[in-house]
Amino acid sequence: MLRTISGFDRIGEENAFAVLARATALAAQGKDIINLGIGQPDFKTPAHIVEAAIKALRDGHHGYTPATGLLAAREAVVRRTLTTTGVEVSPENVIIVPGGKVTMFAAILIFGEPGAEILYPDPGFPIYRSMIEFTGATPVPVPVREENGFAFSAEETLALITPRTRLLILNSPANPTGGVTPKAEIEKLVKGLEAHPHVAIMSDEIYDVMTYDGEEHCSLLTFPSIRDRLIVLNGWSKTWAMTGWRMGWSIWPDGLYDKVRKLAVNCWSCVNAPSQYAGIAAIDGPQDDVEKMCRAFDSRRRIVVDGLNSLPGISCATPKGAFYAFPNIKQTGWPAKQLAAALLDEAGVALIGGPDFGILGEGYIRLSYANSEENILRAIERIERFLAK
What we know:
Oligomer: single chain
Distance between the termini: 50 Å
Strand content: 5-15%
Number of strands: 12
Shape: globular
Low-confidence stretches: none
Order of helices and strands: HHEHHEHEHEHEHEEEHHHEHEEEH
C-alpha cells in the first residue's frame, strides 16, 4: 500500500467545478442547461489583449521569465495599483502568479502548521478552508452574516484572534455573497489589528472594480500601519475576462517576498511569457470593455434580485459587488445542496449549494449572474416552475 501524507486526507475541493462537470455531462446528453454556477465572466477577453499575446509569441517571447514575473508586468501592476488605490508600491514587492489561488496557496502554506490558527470568511471561497486544513493549521471561521449585509464585522473578527492566530484572510467584494464591507468597518478592524502585530493579513481583492449602488472598494493597502504584514491578492481573471489565461498578481511585504519567490522557484517556475505581455496590455490599454462588462453585470444583478424575490420561499439581499447573488432559501424547506442538485437534474439550472462555501452557508445558494439576461430570466422561470410542483 502506498502511503501519502495526512494532509491529503484533509484537503477539500471547489465544488463549482464538480457542478460544471455535471452540467457539461448533462448538456452532452442533449439536456438544455443554464449554467449560473461557475464564477466566470461570459465575455471574451478584449481583442487588444489577445493581440498582445500573439505579438509576444511572434516576437519570440517563448522562454522562461523571472520567477517573480517580468519587470514590465510588475511595473504595470504598480501603475494599476496607484490608479485604483492611490498607493505607490514597489515592483520588488509584486509577484506575477498563475492565477489567484496561487497567492492563497502560498500565504496559507507560509503560515499554516499544526498548532497555528488561521481565520477565514464563512461563507467564503472554499479553497481558503481547504488549504488551511491541508497544512494542519486550525481553520477559524469569521462569520459573514446576511443581517450585516454580508460584510464582515470588525468586532466579531477581532474577538476571534488568539496568540495562536497567524493569518487573517479577508475578501471584499466577496465570493459567494456579493457583500462589500464598508470603509468604516475596515478602519475599525485595522485599528484593532494594531494590537495584534503577530497576525498577518491576506486581503483577497480580485473583484475590486465590481461594485454597485455607489459602493466603493476600500483596499487594505491604504492603511500604512499594517503594510509590513499585508498580502494583497488580485489578478486579471475577473476584471478582463481572462480566467483561462491563469494570470494573477499579489503584493507582498518585504519580510515575506523572498519566501514566496522561493515557492515559485520550487513549484511553478514562472508564468508563461506571452500571457504576461497580454497582462501588460490589459492594464495599460483601453478599459472600455471592462466598463461595459461591469455595466452589464449591474443590469443583470437587478434582474436577478427582482426575479429571486418574486419566488416562493426565497429572499435575496441585493449584492453590492462581484457577480454573485446569495439568496436565502430557508423558507422553501429544502436543504441547500439538495435543492441545487435537484434544480440541475430536474430543471436544468446549475447553481451552487451554500454549504460548499462554509458552515454558515446552509440555507443559501449561490447564483452567478455572469450569464446573459435572457438566460437569467429563463433560469428564474425554471426555478419558479420547480418550486411550484
